[in-house]
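Structure, all four chains, one model.
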Amino acid sequence: MTIRTYETQAPVMPPTAYCVLGLLGSGPMSGYDLKQLADQSISHFYWSPARSQIYSELRRLAASGMVTEERIEQETRPDKRVYEMTPRGRAALKAWLEQDDPEPDTSKNSTLLRVFFGREMDPQALIRMLRAKLEEVRLVHRRLADIHATVQHDDQRFYSALTIRAGLLHTAANMAWAEEALQKIEERERLHPSSAGGPAQ
Amino acid sequence: MTIRTYETQAPVMPPTAYCVLGLLGSGPMSGYDLKQLADQSISHFYWSPARSQIYSELRRLAASGMVTEERIEQETRPDKRVYEMTPRGRAALKAWLEQDDPEPDTSKNSTLLRVFFGREMDPQALIRMLRAKLEEVRLVHRRLADIHATVQHDDQRFYSALTIRAGLLHTAANMAWAEEALQKIEERERLHPSSAGGPAQ
DNA sequence: GTCGACATGTAACCAGTTACATGATTAA
DNA sequence: TTAATCATGTAACTGGTTACATGTCGAC
């Protein structure tokens, strides 16, 4: 199994590689640590790769000189490999972050997909789904509010705080939308009910 | 090349398959048509597969009895294959849409990723990026407002209108966030500027 | 006469996931 | 003793993209 390295010039790497580099920005770490960190940070607005992929990404980055690998032997635990960003890695990361036209944002909002295909659904099922969604979003919103309260005056977490603010505004928008959508759907059902009582046939 | 069909019982298919089925809900269509329709509808909140994938997905769905394929010879144009949802396909779609725990929503918001890794960037580059983003979102918001105005009283497009409303609330939240973030970053730069004038070194 | 819309498809590739495998330590 | 955490990795697969190939028609 050959490791494909990244070209030294114009290193066009997949976003995953830059995510890994970016996370290494907060200090040297093992693949295991990276996975944890990704799960509790960028997974909320970007995504978190599988462990196996982090490991192979790290190997690629090491082979390309973007990170250094240091084997650390441990007595009580299995050995670990700690990775650290090199100046070249940091430069590649910076160039990518500052590039003129970043990749477009994408989302897979399965709630909206369901609503869009709403006429294929039993309206009551749709309503149940939206109510559940609303509860879920309310919870997330409250959690984010708590987190934001604890970080908002910590300049060390200035940028994290900004992303948490984004989460707050997004969840708020989501709640408002879900409430509005529920009202409209319920109203519409009242006007022309799609089927008399009893379980959907 | 063997076509793997979907099991007749408990047909667990990838979301793409359900997207295709859902789009066929608005009538029989060719793969080409499906791509167009996907691009101007669900691509905005879910995603739009490559043409080649739509074609192979259709073949799989046909082999599984979820859709029927009809070859239509045309004189002036190349032949087309028109696909239509079968009752089994519609049932599978309904079951998927109404399932109890839908796949979690995901997003790849590269703006937030950049902000999160903001300390690796030149603050001025970050500011430029956010300003550009803000303009972009304002545009989308205006376009959505126009579309919503034309659709909101058409009961045929009731569900579309709901998803457009979601887009409006989301873009509004995005604008508010970007404005706030810009203010905070600029304020912070004013307090402790990171580097004296001149191009970033 | 060239470009874009119509229309379908194959081949090569890559990104990313799941499942499997190993094995020690610590807490319930 | 069972499960969770620490720690790494391989193999098989699938989902999805890009590039290539083919060919017609109508508009400019």
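Residues 196-201 of chain B have pLDDT under 50 and may be disordered.
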